[in-house]
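Customer escalation, tier 2.

The customer says the design service returned an amino acid string that "doesn't look like it belongs to this structure." They asked us to rerun it and document both sides in this ticket. The original structure tokens are below, unchanged.
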């Protein structure tokens, strides 16, 4: 196969992700680019409707499943801007490794919100044994479906969320833990 229009990078690290009205991009730093002849570079990969984003098992995922610190392989256009960092259109981005963290992640649908105590309850896959109550830390970050910061008051029952939380849970029913980051998922 002739790859004169394609550049590939391996073992890149996601440094930033932005999604919004002006488009979406992933900023990747990478040590290994055989056709680039440079070490430790960065590139801004612009995401289009044709960009394929894959998890470790080669399943398609949305850009909202990517996070800073992930290790990825990518294929992108040779046509790049001369800006710093250069920008190019991404064809494929595949996660190869997720960062190890001191917290866990739970994805579920909000079923109850206690605004006075700054907490909410989720359920995952309709399974009653997956109900968890999250106490939202004062410094918790909350993001809407576009990755933009939002207020706790913007969370509503029925929203699907990805919650990064402490690794411990109480033995109560439902179990409780502290939420550090909440991302609304489409």
């Amino acid at each position: 196969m002739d790859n004169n229009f394609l550049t590939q990078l391996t073992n890149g690290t996601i440094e930033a992700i932005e999604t919004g009205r002006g488009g979406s991009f992933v900023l990747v730093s990478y040590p290994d680019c055989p056709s680039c002849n440079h070490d430790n570079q960065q590139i801004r990969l612009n995401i289009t409707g044709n960009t394929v984003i894959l998890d470790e098992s080669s399943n398609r995922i949305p850009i909202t499943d990517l996070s800073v610190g992930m290790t990825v392989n990518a294929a992108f256009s040779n046509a790049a801007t001369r800006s710093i960092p250069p920008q190019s259109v991404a064809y494929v981005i595949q996660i190869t490794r997720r960062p190890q963290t001191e917290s866990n992640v739970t994805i579920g649908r909000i079923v109850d919100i206690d605004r006075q105590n700054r907490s909410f309850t989720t359920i995952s896959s309709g399974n009653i044994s997956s109900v968890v109550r999250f106490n939202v830390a004062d410094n918790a970050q909350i993001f809407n479906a576009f990755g933009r910061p939002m207020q706790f008051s913007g969370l509503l029952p029925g929203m699907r969320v990805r919650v990064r939380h402490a690794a411990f849970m109480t033995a109560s029913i439902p179990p409780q833990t502290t939420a550090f980051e909440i991302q609304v998922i489409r």
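Tier 2 assessment: The sequence is consistent with the input. The chain has no helices and eleven strands. The CA atoms of residues 24 and 47 lie 5 Å apart. Sent an explanation to the customer and offered a walkthrough call.
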